[in-house]
Amino acid sequence: MGLFITFEGIEGSGKTTQFELLKSYLEKMGRSVLAIREPGGSVLGERIREILLNSGGVGICPVSELFLYEACRAELVKDVIGPALKSNKTVICDRFIDSTIAYQGFGRGIGIKDIERVNNMAAGGVAPDVTFLLDMDPGAGLERAWKRINATNTGINREDRFEKEGLEFHSRVREGYLRLSMAEPERIKVIDGARDVRLVHGDICAVVDKIIR
To answer: Could you give the CA distance from residue 164 to residue 129 in angstroms, rounded to a whole number?
Structure first.
């Protein structure tokens, strides 16, 4: 089986930047890498992404939001992640099951046990070998996120639905992530995302190198 690495964090924590840097690092090492994102990563998943992240789209109640994420995940695991791991590839994913617990559980208030049950069903037993949680102050993260959105996402397809949630929501999400990291410290590695990009990348590479060795 291959290696499954996931990146998690609040909006603006820098996880996508680190995700891309790790992909390049692993490819330079000669490893076969599949880089994917949630929501997305499949034909159905990319269509669901447009619904979930575009604030100008339809309104979504918390339970519907949960099941849209799980539908995306089920397709992604069955058609993309599972086959890649079986072929001994290194899979790195920008968000996975922990995001659902943090956002829909701690953020939206859906029962954690209920989310864990549907997470397990959608993931089909597939779980990350290591998860990097990029942690930082929610206010600073939102400021970063809005700068990125305003610079890159113009027009009607702006991915800003979660950024429009209040600071209290994002604080609950961060608390959820930190609780998950305390429950699974061997898998979830908390990295200070407020630091220089190169320092964060160095910490991540050190962990990955140890796993590979």
So the answer is: 32
User: Cα dihedral angle (130, 190, 103, 92), rounded to 10 degrees?
Assistant: -30
For the question of whether the overall pTM of this predicted structure is more than 0.90, the answer is yes
Identify the burial level of 165 via C-beta atoms within 10 angstroms of its C-beta, where 0-12 means exposed, 13-18 middle and 19 or more buried: middle
Separation CA 203–CA 207 (nearest Å): 7
For 6, phi and psi rounded to 5 degrees?
-125, 155
Q: What is each CA distance from 206 to 149, 201, 210, in whole angstroms?
A: 31, 9, 6
What are 43-78's pLDDT values in tens digits? 888 999 988 888 676 789 999 999 999 999 999 999
Using CA atoms, how far apart are residues 97 and 106, in angstroms rounded to an integer?
A: 13
Question: What whole-number percentage of the chain has pLDDT above 70?
Answer: 97
Q: Tokens 């603006």 — which residue?
A: 12
Asked whether the beta carbons of 70 and 119 are under 8 A apart, the reply is yes
Supply the mean pLDDT for the chain.
Answer: 93
Report DSSP state, residue 25.
H
- What is the Cα–Cα distance from 133 to 136, expressed in whole angstroms? 10
Give residue 152's pLDDT.
Answer: 77
Q: Residue 3: pLDDT above 70?
A: yes
Is 92 strand, coil or helix? strand
Single-letter residue type at 53: L
> What does the alpha-carbon distance between residue 1 and residue 91 come to, in Å, rounded to a whole number?
11
